[in-house]
Structure formats: structure tokens, C-alpha cells
Amino acid sequence: MDYDIWKATELTEKYLSGVRGAIPLAKEQIELMLRIIDACNIKVERILDLGCGDGILAASILQKYTDASGVLLDISEPMIQVAKNKLVKYKEHFDFVLFDFGESRWAERVKAKGPFSVIISGFSIHHQTDERKQKLYSEIFNLLIPGGLFLNLENVSSSTKWVSSLFDEYFIDSLYNMHLLNGDGITRQGVSEEWYHREDIEVNKLAPVEKQCEWLREIGFCDVDCYFKVFEIALFGGRKPR
Ligand SMILES: C[S@@+](CC[C@H](N)C(=O)[O-])C[C@H]1O[C@@H](n2cnc3c(N)ncnc32)[C@H](O)[C@@H]1O
Fold first, then answer.
1. If you write DSSP's letter for every residue of 104-128 in order, what string do you get?
2. Domain of 233: which CATH number?
3. From atom 12 of ligand 1, which residue's Cα is the shortest distance away?
4. Of 2, 119, 198, 219, which cross-links 203 as Cys (Cβ 3.0–4.6 Å)?
5. 3-class DSSP assignment, residue 233
6. Is 240 helix (H, G, I), strand (E, B) or coil?
7. Is ligand 1 within 6 A of the CB of residue 124?
8. Hey, which of 74, 106, 110, 155 would you mutate to test ligand 1's pocket, going by the most ligand atoms within 8 Å of its Cβ?
9. Would you say 148 and 119 are in contact if contact means Cβ atoms under 8 Å apart?
């Protein structure tokens, strides 16, 4: 699979030490995620984080819902290792699963740990084809409790190249500001060149958020919406009817 690039330690480190920290409005995205979970009025018992990376999203939920348990799934061994280290104090709460959600068998692998109150995913599903994204959303629906919530914090496509360029420049500024704070001497030109030649650009299969919300409605999710969007970063999802 082309998204195998994530199995490399180098890309993992580059993402965690650079790109993740530069995501604009990242704190607000997590606050919104928690607010939406809270508004669901469900017992947050079991959670599933798909493409968990270092576990940032699952950890944020666990800080608030301290009794929750669940599964963190990722295709990348180095990422799973970082997640295990970072979440060491919650190790009794989580199973760390090394698996590819590009294969339908992933659902069987985690089924015994479900059904889940909340399923989240951060910047991960956009490497799948549109056909696979739709199947994956159905598989997620089947793993939720009635009233359960799916939230996808995700890279989505822009409507035109010009809009996409707004996002690129916005993100480059954010990365550059982070480098300025770190005092590592990299120029904006340098940041820009790295951004346009980044490794994962080739394996992105971004889809419009409107289309993805429509797929969720067709599957049976309710209260589907794009709850937040800034250029190519969106937080969208829906609830499984009770
Ligand atoms: C950009 S990182 C995001 C990590 C984390 N969710 C976050 O919000 O920071 C994408 C993660 O998805 C994982 N990933 C990508 N494709 C995957 C797949 N098909 N199955 C499981 N994990 C996948 C990568 O290994 C990586 O850890």
C-alpha cells in the first residue's frame, strides 16, 4: 500500500515533532471534539481511535472521561510505540492494535472490544480511495453503540486550486511561526519547499467534506455535519440513531 510510508520512523518523527504541532487551531479542534462528545449524553465507556498516531485524540478524551477504555489502532509500529510510551499511565485502559484499516478485517480484529461509545480518527482516512472511505464509514457505524458518535478530524479537499493554495500558504505560515519560536533558523522559503515536497502528498486522496457528510447520511448516521472547517482541515461526523 502506498500509505505504508507511515511505517517509517523518520516520517513519524517528522510529523510528531513538526507538522502536528503546527496544525492551526489544533487546541480548538480538540475542545470541539470534547464538547460534541459531551453533548451526546452517552456513557463514554469504550472509545476507538483509528490511525491514532501518538494517541493525542484518545488521550484528550481519557483526560476527561477517566473511566473510559478502548482501542488505539495504527498501521505504523513506530507510531504505536510512541503512543504506548505517551499513554503509559493509561496502559490498563487501552489495547494497542497494529493493523491496516484499509482492509475490512480490521473491524473483526477490534469487535470483541466494542461496541464503542465514540470512534474518532485524526488525519488518517484520507489515504483511502473514496470507495474504501465509504465502506470504512459503514464498518465504523456497525461498531458503534446506539447513540454512539463518530468524529473524523480530517484533511479534506478544497473546491478549487486557488482555495487549496490559501490552505498551503496558511499552513506554511503556521509551520514557519513554529520554527521561529524554536529558533532553528529555517527560512520561510525553506519551510515552503519542504511543504510542497512532503512525502505524504503523493498518497493523499482528499475528498470534499460535503460529499463525505452525504455518505455518512446514506449509511444511517444522524446529526451529520461539518462541525468545524478551516480550509482543508475539517471536523465532521455524526451519531448512530438510538
Ligand atoms: C497524520 S497521522 C495522525 C495521527 C493522529 N491521529 C493525530 O491526530 O495526530 C496519520 C496516522 O494514521 C496512520 N495510518 C495511516 N493509514 C492507516 C491505515 N490504513 N490503517 C491504520 N493506520 C493508518 C499513520 O500510521 C499515522 O499514525
1. THHHHHHHTT--EEEEEEES-GGGS
2. 3.40.50.150
3. 51
4. 2
5. strand
6. coil
7. yes
8. 74
9. yes
